[in-house]
User: Which sequence fits this backbone?
């Protein structure tokens, strides 16, 4: 009996973990990654909430487990369609056949919201406006800080819900991880610049996970981060490279103006692909305005199978999710795939 | 000359005249004192003649409807003008044959019953032909109207107004009048001879037998009843628009001004809401047609006002893009009417602008341009940066007066019905503007531009940045070369329809690229979906409107969608795959290639990204 093959699209945490689980079960895994390096967004993160565990520790552990003879990782490979061929599936890039497998797992993750869409926040116009993802790169010293590091007390603002819970951007959903990420990043900022004044502009603080609320308290009590309930209306240039922001403190019921040395936009998650449903094949298309995440038909009891037998989905391409939940989902989906392949035989 | 069958007509007609006279007198009394004085002053002037000529063009020939939709125009023209010819012809006929002008009205209406056979010189033939021709014209219009009820697309309409039961009853009587007249005249012609090419041949074909004699008088009765009942229903149905439109035309010619407040029961507003014929031309013009939950289109709004129904949601949903206003063949101030209605709704709103500072003038700086980007402009810094770079390139000095601090121009508040709050903003801004010694006020926002031009009465001219940029290009202060770019221009509501500025932005774009056309341009342009005018339209509906607009704009595959409004740009941009730029941004982009070879759209994107 020949070994059954599974193709996984996306080598982020979801793709890597399911590849590891499937390989350990004895299946041959072809893991496709469109970027040059595997790891997805995790590869660009500094430390993780709520315990501030270094992200590279987690990624390294995954990469070591993925060094399995059953896994072949193909980077720089973008898949554009999945087509059925008998009981098997063919992965294609444009018209070129890439491989033929018994099952396919879509783990293409999410894309960060393009902050330039909200021109009023000045991203891409003023250098002092950065995204939460860029802030991670700043923590890792991959870029210089957009203000004088010798400033005794830099003023830094964090804006929640950029591109999330925003009907005007076509995204009504909550991206789930940004609130606690903002709390974590505020603490990291205070650790880097102990005298900094850090302001966090939020709509609600959604501290749903274990340890999140504690972190939020720590940020307020220990690190003196100021949390202001209110959405930012605009950012405009002030003297030098500084940024003036206008917001409303909705708890105090008054408008406020602040001049900041850096403004961090907590960008939400948006879908990375939408599935075009042709007659038989499945196209992986670039999302349009208000296109949602991949919709799962099975809902509560089965959220890994698409309606076509042999096609599975795991991780953040189904919607915003935290890293531990992605890993659990990847393991569970690997089991679903195993059951499917055993049934097929 | 009398027969009892003339009674239904005579009674209906008299009642109508009395009701109309009473209603119009009441409405006229409701005009403001200034407006009443204007009426009197202009009553015996050339304006009245102009009004009569406009009545002829619009109420009878319906030239404006004809221009937007020739088939629909012909339908209205044949019904109205045909009937008018019948009435005038009838009167002339009785005058000619009796030699007496002052005969009873019914005599002209039922003339062929009293005088089946007329004789005379050549004039008799002309008269008989003329009357039958007019009848045929009306019947043609009627056939089209019937066809429109069955299949609206036949007359080139996507949407037609849904009518209430009362109006349909009146409509039935109206439609019965002319076939019954044809039948009655034909019956008389068949029995007694006479008649024209239509009635004589019909009479011979249908009513020449002796058995038909008993049909003649009942047909005249039926004709008279349908006339009488229609006239009776007219002042209480939408057909009131026929005489009211004529009065409205006169009032407008007499230079009657818009009256403040929402009082649709009297004064000018009463004439306006009753002059609406529910023709439905505004429906196809509305960008929100068939999208919103409420059918809030002008035709339905006016109808609800007329019927004294709840109009809040209808008044607040509308985007105030002005498309219905410019499409209305009767020229009703639809935008103004809605705003007046809103002022009533928002009377009790709690606005608090007490925190507004008083600008202090210590030194009046002299400058060529006073730049005002407005609150929406603050949200689109790329446009402001680009425009300022262009001013610098052209060597024009400027002061950006609301860069650090500014308040709203006031129009959004006025659109929300809070005119008094808008006045506060105006006072603040006027002080701010007067604090500088500038030659011209330039704004990058069409909303501000319209409000500054219409309401502020500043000492210096006001320009939109598209106008100012075109002037700079014209003077040779901004030099650009033609590029291989396909550009689609989106007319912002307040700039195009609102301020009549269509050419300057197009001129600027034509100088740097090829302007591609689409099916909804200039006064027919669609709204981006995000006009500040709407207070209650849902985001979903707005996004459906945007999607439709983007679809129209990208019809001819442009490289860029270009607009000139800080509200249109982000709205279109979020939903469009084709990049959306402000006019100033695109003009700045082309600077780098002023002396080089034409560049492709891909190369432009690279410059933008860098």
Assistant:
């Amino acid at each position: 009996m020949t070994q059954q093959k599974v193709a996984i699209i996306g080598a982020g945490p979801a793709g890597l973990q399911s590849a590891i689980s499937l390989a350990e079960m004895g299946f041959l895994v072809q893991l496709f990654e469109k970027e040059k390096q595997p790891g997805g967004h995790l590869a660009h993160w500094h430390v993780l909430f709520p315990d501030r565990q270094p992200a590279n520790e987690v990624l390294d552990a995954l990469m070591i487990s993925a060094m399995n003879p059953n896994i072949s990782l193909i980077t720089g490979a973008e898949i554009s369609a999945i087509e059925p061929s008998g009981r098997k599936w063919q992965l294609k890039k444009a018209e070129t056949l890439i491989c033929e497998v018994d099952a396919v797992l879509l783990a293409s993750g999410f894309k960060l919201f393009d902050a330039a869409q909200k021109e009023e926040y000045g991203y891409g116009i003023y250098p002092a406006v950065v995204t939460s993802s860029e802030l991670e790169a700043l923590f890792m010293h991959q870029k210089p800080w957009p203000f004088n590091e010798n400033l005794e007390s830099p003023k830094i603002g964090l804006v929640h819900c950029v591109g999330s819970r925003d009907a005007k951007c076509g995204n009504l959903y909550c991206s789930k991880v940004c609130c606690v990420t903002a709390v974590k990043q505020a603490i990291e900022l205070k650790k880097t610049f102990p005298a900094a004044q850090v302001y966090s502009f939020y709509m609600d603080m959604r501290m749903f996970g274990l340890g999140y609320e504690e972190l939020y308290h720590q940020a307020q009590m220990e690190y003196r981060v100021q949390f202001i309930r209110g959405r930012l209306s605009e950012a405009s240039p002030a003297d030098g490279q500084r940024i003036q922001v206008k917001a409303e403190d909705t708890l105090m019921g008054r408008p406020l103006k602040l001049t900041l040395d850096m403004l961090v936009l907590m960008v939400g998650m948006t879908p990375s692909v939408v599935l075009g449903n042709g007659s038989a094949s499945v196209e992986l298309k670039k999302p349009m305005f208000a296109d949602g995440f991949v919709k799962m038909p099975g809902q509560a009891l089965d959220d890994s199978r698409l309606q076509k037998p042999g096609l599975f989905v795991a991780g953040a391409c189904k919607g915003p999710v935290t890293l531990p939940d992605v890993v659990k989902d990847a393991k569970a989906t690997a089991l679903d795939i195993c059951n499917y392949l055993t049934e097929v035989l | 000359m009398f027969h009892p069958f003339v009674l239904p007509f005579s009674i209906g007609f008299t009642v109508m005249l009395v009701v109309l006279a009473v209603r119009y007198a009441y409405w006229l009394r409701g005009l403001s004192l200034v407006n009443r004085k204007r009426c009197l002053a202009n009553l015996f002037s050339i304006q009245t003649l102009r009004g009569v000529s406009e009545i002829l063009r619009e109420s009878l020939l319906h030239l404006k409807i004809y221009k937007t939709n020739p088939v629909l125009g012909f339908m209205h023209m044949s019904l109205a003008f045909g009937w008018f010819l019948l009435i005038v012809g009838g009167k002339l006929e009785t005058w000619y044959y009796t030699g007496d002008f002052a005969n009873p009205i019914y005599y002209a209406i039922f003339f062929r019953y009293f005088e089946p056979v007329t004789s005379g010189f050549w004039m008799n033939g002309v008269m008989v032909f003329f009357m039958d021709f007019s009848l045929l014209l009306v019947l043609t219009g009627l056939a089209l109207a019937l066809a429109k009820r069955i299949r609206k697309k036949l007359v080139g309409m996507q949407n037609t107004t849904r009518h209430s039961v009362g109006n349909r009853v009146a409509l039935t009587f109206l439609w019965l009048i002319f076939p019954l007249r044809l039948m009655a005249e034909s019956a008389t012609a068949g029995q007694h001879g006479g008649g024209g090419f239509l009635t004589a041949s019909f009479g011979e074909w249908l009513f020449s037998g002796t058995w038909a004699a008993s049909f003649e008088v009942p047909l005249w009765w039926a004709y008279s009843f349908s006339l009488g009942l229609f006239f009776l229903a007219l002042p209480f149905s939408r057909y009131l628009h026929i005489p009211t439109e004529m009065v409205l035309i006169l009032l407008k010619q007499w230079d009657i001004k818009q009256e403040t407040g929402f009082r649709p029961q009297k004064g000018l507003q009463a004439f306006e809401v009753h002059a609406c014929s529910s023709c439905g031309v505004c429906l196809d013009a509305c960008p929100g047609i068939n999208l919103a939950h409420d059918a809030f289109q002008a035709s339905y709004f006016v109808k609800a006002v007329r019927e004294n129904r709840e109009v809040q949601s209808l008044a607040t949903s509308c985007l105030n893009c002005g498309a219905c206003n410019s499409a209305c063949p009767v020229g009703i101030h639809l935008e103004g009417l809605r705003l007046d209605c809103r002022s009533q709704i928002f009377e009790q709103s709690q606005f608090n602008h007490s925190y507004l500072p008083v600008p202090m003038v210590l030194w009046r700086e002299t400058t060529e341009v006073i730049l005002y980007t407005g609150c929406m402009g603050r949200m689109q810094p790329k446009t402001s940066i680009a425009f300022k770079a262009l001013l610098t390139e052209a060597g024009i000095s400027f002061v950006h007066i609301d860069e650090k601090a500014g308040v709203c121009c006031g129009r959004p508040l006025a659109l929300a019905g809070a005119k008094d709050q808008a006045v506060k903003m105006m006072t603040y801004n006027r002080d701010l503007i007067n604090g500088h010694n500038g030659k011209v006020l330039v704004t990058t926002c069409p909303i501000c531009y319209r409000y500054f031009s219409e309401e502020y009465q500043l000492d210096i001219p006001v320009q939109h940045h598209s106008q100012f940029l075109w002037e700079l290009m014209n003077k040779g202060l901004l030099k650009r070369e033609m590029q291989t770019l396909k550009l689609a221009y989106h007319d912002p509501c307040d700039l195009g329809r609102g301020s009549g500025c269509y050419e300057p932005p197009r001129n600027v774009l034509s100088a740097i690229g090829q302007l591609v056309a689409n099916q909804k341009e200039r006064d027919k342009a669609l709204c981006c979906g995000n006009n500040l005018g709407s207070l209650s339209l849902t985001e979903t509906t707005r996004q459906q409107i945007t999607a439709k607009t983007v679809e129209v704009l990208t019809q001819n595959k442009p490289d860029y969608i270009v607009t000139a409004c800080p509200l249109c740009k982000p709205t279109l941009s979020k939903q469009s795959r084709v990049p959306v730029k402000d006019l100033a941004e695109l003009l700045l982009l082309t600077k780098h290639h002023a002396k080089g070879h034409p560049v492709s759209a891909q190369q432009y994107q690279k410059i933008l990204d860098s």
Observations:
- Chain B touches chain A at residues 355, 378-382, 385, 403, 539, 543, 547, 570, 573-575, 577 (CB under 8 Å).
- Chain B has a mean pLDDT of 89.
